[in-house]
């Protein structure tokens, strides 16, 4: 059995430090690197990319709404031309920095509000899909497992990777618990490791109401900005590998 571990990295901005990229890159197999629209500055992004290259970690463009002040977590009703151009711009910027760091962008993962909105909004989803294809149709697209976007992306011919969230609570319908509600963010490394072992073995997670939800995922995300993120990711990797589940970048898998 194989599964990918990914984390959102490159999100520090100037003197504002976010997460521990160096430590996370020794644990994960894929890095979703900020592109400057929700977080990240050029020098910090480049340093993260160089570290990813040194660790052999697969790199993805973590594209977002233009929302530095809100960390990309506020919904925006962008016109299609604006949204497509912004996604193309972000991927292109990261491609340039990645080339300088000795690596390359292999996939795209939307961030925050954009990620959640296009999971069910056909118009903005089509804009993001069109932008990815305009840059490089061989890029993968990471989406919420079970979302409408997963089907739309496949129909458009993109390599689609469905992901689960190690440190986020699930509702009975398979959606994530909103961040402003109890149970949205999880912190116990052992509990997180056990629930993701359940996901890897059985394809299910236990929702906040106690029900069992089927989640088909090829990748597991641990948010790099969560308190104790490194400890969570390390415990998760240890638990999975102890059970014979190999950690491999999804872009390396057939």
UniProtKB/TrEMBL annotation:
Gene3D superfamilies attached to this UniProt entry: Glycoside hydrolase/deacetylase (3.20.20.370)
InterPro entries referenced in this protein's UniProt entry, alphabetically: Glyco_hydro/deAcase_b/a-brl, LamB/YcsF/PxpA-like
Enzyme class, broadest EC rank: hydrolase
SUPFAM superfamilies xref list: Glycoside hydrolase/deacetylase (SSF88713)
Any single biological process term in GO: carbohydrate metabolic process
Any one GO MF annotation of this record: ATP binding
Annotated catalysed reactions: 5-oxo-L-proline + ATP + 2 H2O = L-glutamate + ADP + phosphate + H(+)
EC number: 3.5.2.9
UniProt keywords, alphabetically: ATP-binding, Hydrolase, Nucleotide-binding
Subunit structure: Forms a complex composed of PxpA, PxpB and PxpC.
HAMAP family named in the record: PxpA
Family indicated by similarity: Belongs to the LamB/PxpA family.
Role played: Catalyzes the cleavage of 5-oxoproline to form L-glutamate coupled to the hydrolysis of ATP to ADP and inorganic phosphate.
Protein name: 5-oxoprolinase subunit A
Organism listed in the record: Roseateles depolymerans
Gene: pxpA
């Amino acid at each position: 059995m194989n599964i990918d571990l990914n984390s959102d990295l490159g999100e520090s901005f100037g003197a504002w430090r976010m997460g521990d990229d160096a430590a996370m890159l020794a644990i994960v197999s894929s890095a979703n690197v900020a592109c400057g629209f929700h977080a990240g500055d050029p020098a910090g992004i480049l340093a993260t990319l160089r570290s990813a290259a040194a660790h052999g970690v697969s790199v993805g463009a973590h594209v977002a709404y233009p929302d530095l002040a809100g960390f990309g977590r506020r919904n925006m009703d962008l016109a299609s031309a604006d949204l497509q151009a912004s996604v193309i711009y972000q991927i292109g910027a990261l491609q340039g920095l990645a080339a300088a760091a000795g690596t390359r962008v292999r996939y795209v993962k939307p961030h925050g509000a954009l990620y959640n909105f296009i999971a069910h909004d056909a118009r903005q989803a089509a804009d993001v899909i069109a932008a990815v294809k305009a840059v490089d149709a061989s890029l993968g697209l990471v989406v919420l497992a079970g979302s409408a976007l997963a089907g739309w992306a496949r129909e458009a011919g993109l390599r689609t990777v469905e992901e689960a969230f190690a440190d986020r609570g699930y509702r009975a319908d398979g959606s994530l618990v909103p961040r402003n509600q109890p149970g949205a963010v999880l912190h116990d490394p052992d509990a997180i490791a056990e629930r993701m072992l359940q996901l890897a073995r059985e394809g299910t997670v236990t929702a906040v109401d106690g029900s069992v939800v089927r989640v088909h995922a090829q990748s597991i995300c641990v948010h790099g900005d969560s308190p104790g993120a490194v400890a969570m990711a390390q415990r998760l990797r240890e638990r999975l590998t102890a059970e014979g589940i190999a950690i491999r970048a999804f872009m390396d898998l057939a």
